Amino acid sequence: MSALAILAQQNGGAVVGGAIGLMIVLWILAIAATVFWIWMLIDVLVSNLDTTNKILWFLVVFFLHFIGALLYLFLARQRRYSPATV
Q: Of 6, 18, 22, 86, which residue has the fewest beta carbons closer than 10 angstroms?
């Protein structure tokens, strides 16, 4: 018998099912984070920032991955779309 069949017979099926469910959720989160990271990389490249800031933000997002993408989203991108002050 396979190990999964033995675990299923000894009430280990819940453990295996839970582990598989957790793996699926983690994969979905990883794919979503990667898509967000790529989106922020592209957004940096097509932004209207000056060249120095564009290179700086690209390197931050590229090397810090998800955290860098969040930093860019909340710090640099928000400034671009903030309403004009009078």
A: 86
The pair of three-digit structure tokens given for residue 75, joined into one six-digit string: 């710090």
pLDDT averaged over consecutive 10-residue blocks of the chain (86 residues)? Answer: 58 72 94 97 93 95 96 83 55
- φ, ψ of residue 84 in degrees (nearest 5): -70, 140
The residue behind tokens 């922020």 is 40
Query: So where are the chain's domains?
Result: 3-80
* DSSP SS3 for 11: coil
- The reported pLDDT for the residue numbered 27 is 97
pTM: 0.72
Q: Which pLDDT value is given to residue 8?
A: 56
The 3-class SS string of 42-71 reads HHHHHCCCCHHHHHHHHHHHHHHHHHHHHH
Q: d(Cα 42, Cα 37) in Å, to the nearest integer?
A: 9
The end-to-end CA distance of the chain, in Å, is 75
